[in-house]
Amino acid sequence: MEIPRERLLWLYERMVLIRAFEDRVAQLFAAGKLPGFVHLYAGEEAIAVGVCAHLTDRDFITSTHRGHGHCIAKGVDVRAMMTELYGKATGVCKGKGGSMHIADVDKGMLGANGIVGGGPPIACGAGLTAKTLGTDQVAVYFFGDGAAEQGTTHEAMNLAAIWKLPVVFVCENNLYAESTPWTYHCAAPDIASRAAAYDMPGVLVDGTDVFAVYEAAGEAIARARRGEGPTLLECRAFRYYGHFQGDAVTYRTPEEEASYRQRDPIQRFRQAVLSQGLLGEDELDAVDAAVKDRIEEAVRFAETSPYPPPEECLTDVYVSYPVEQLAFRH
Amino acid sequence: MVVATRVLSYRQAINEALRLEMRRDPTVILMGEDVAGGATVEHVEQEGAWGGPLGVTKSLVSEFGRRRVLDTPISEAAFIGAAVGAAVTGLRPVAELMFVDFFGVCMDQIFNQGAKLRYMFGGKAKVPMVIRTMIGAGFGAAGQHSGCHYSVFAHMPGLKAVAPATPYDAKGLLIAAIRDDDPVLFFEHKMLYDTTGEVPEGDYVVPIGKADVKREGNDVTIVAISRMVHVALEAAARLAADGIDAEVVDLRSLSPLDEETVLRSLAKTRRLVVVDEDNPRCSIAADIAALAVDKGFDSLDAPVKLVTAPHTPVPFSPPLEQYYVPSPERVVAAVRELL
Lengths: 330, 339
Ligand SMILES: Cc1ncc(C[n+]2csc(CCOP(=O)(O)OP(=O)(O)O)c2C)c(N)n1
Ligand SMILES: [Mg+2]
Hints:
The structure holds two protein chains of two kinds.
Chain A: H1 5-30, H2 45-52, E1 60-62, H3 68-73, H4 78-86, H5 120-133, E2 139-144, H6 151-162, E3 167-173, E4 176-177, E5 180-181, H7 182-185, E6 202-206, H8 210-225, E7 231-236, H9 254-261, H10 265-275, H11 281-304
Parallel strand pairs in A: 1-2, 2-3, 3-7, 6-7
Antiparallel strand pairs in A: 4-5
Chain B: E1 5-9, H1 10-24, E2 28-32, H2 60-64, E3 69-71, H3 76-88, E4 92-99, H4 107-114, H5 117-120, E5 130-135, H6 150-154, E6 160-162, H7 167-179, E7 184-189, E8 196-200, E9 212-215, E10 220-224, H8 227-241, E11 246-250, E12 253-255, H9 259-269, E13 272-276, H10 284-295, E14 305-308, H11 318-324, H12 328-338
Parallel strand pairs in B: 2-3, 2-4, 4-5, 5-7, 6-7, 10-11, 10-13, 13-14
Antiparallel strand pairs in B: 1-8, 6-12, 9-11
The structure holds thiamine diphosphate and magnesium ion.
């Protein structure tokens, strides 16, 4: 499969940007700079990037609690993201959503989600809009292996199939849902084969190989754009960090964790493009350096941004009560 | 008989209640996501991995095994519903709905099934189940992991609902909930897990439907629940410094509601402030105000004041979240308006 140079550089730059963002967030969280809790995407970069490479700002995605990678792959500004994680007024959601609800509708990013299985019906809705209005837009639902057991995921797959909605279901099987192995929570030998129940194609993909994801997602998205209905992709990858920052990860052995790095998506990409002479080492290193600067700039911006005023708590809600009434009785 | 007590955390008190009831009654089982954790992972099969996301059910699997401490898939409708089915047919399941905000995923099983079976079946079915669930803001967990939402459940006929504020009440109420023949929602405030207090050894019951006067006073009644009991006590301490003597009533149960204790306190103090972290419309706070007006009107020398969260989702940013949660300052100011 031929991938143009700029596209190759984009794939690399987005993966490195996600990794750098997540590693920096891990440090900032450990240093007590970030409120709440964060679920990091490091190790799974090839999935978001390989899929979103086929999407434009007009296409839609719904995401999960582990949503930073999806945001970055969909083109959400990392500065506004970092600032959101700090809870600052200049964050992409004015500091009101935080890591678990990070979203940017202008970029077609319909939200990380605090509810496992919250996204699939929404992706169907986005697909329904595209179909009803006769556009060629596509909606992608990213979900974990754990979310594969939620009723909404199954109902949405069936709905997308009977209505032939332009929706692609991308399962990110990182082997665990919190501390529970997917082989325990899932009765089937793989998640991709569940597609058969909804009469849609189901494809098992190596989620640490961005080229494999790119190719499989390309087909699924093209099929959706042609109006031929949904596809289920199951991408297998590893989550490097704990479920959330602070998880002691007692359910994995050090050997298991060490084995993950041997299939690191970024290293695999580098090896592939260098050995085939598609990109030069200096080009890749330049991307690394630029990404680093960008992340540091985002952190500086976040640190120096103001918090929202407390009354911001009361805005953007559908039913609002006048502030005078709010002293004690809201 | 003198019963030994020791200082336990709220988390330990809940763990102990589960342990004692599981020892006493082999039909008590636990289920939920990662309540043991690491299912089928060889090196943690015995002792479990997480013991719940905040470690509340830690080590129960070591004693009772995986047949009675069941990790579930992320399928709340299925396993909460299975708890209903198991309860009707002979078990006493304790199911964990990790955060109360997730209730939407499984509400039919709670509300149309669990809550209504006894009634619709003409009294022939019993549904002795408990749903333990975490509530409350304060963790920066944002819009879908920080609500209280207990008022929703108190609104529904057929459900009992309790929300302890102290380790002592947590243990006694959980034991009562497990022994109760009706479905009981047990609300655990996540900001209380590390708070400590005296807890007797052995089993004891705090009756469901009984409020508790946590501080006696004559000038004003402050009714509160869960974490807000501590906010009310802090406010009472500040008021005392100015010579205002507040009584703090901890509701403990939302359903059934101990009207008598609230009305008795109101008859004594003749003034009422309600402190509630839940959203205010159609809430337990509004319900207490209605009770005061309906059955305590002659006792009231001043309007009832409500100190609640605003009618919004919970925001993420720390200063916004702080603004959201009722504070002792706001309680003090509400009391001053009445005097
Ligand atoms: C309805 C619902 N149930 C439970 C949770 C708690 N929870 C958050 S993430 C998670 C595990 C998700 O696993 P998976 O779908 O595999 O995604 P991963 O974390 O591995 O990316 C759970 C149980 C939740 N947020 N929403
Ligand atoms: Mg997973």
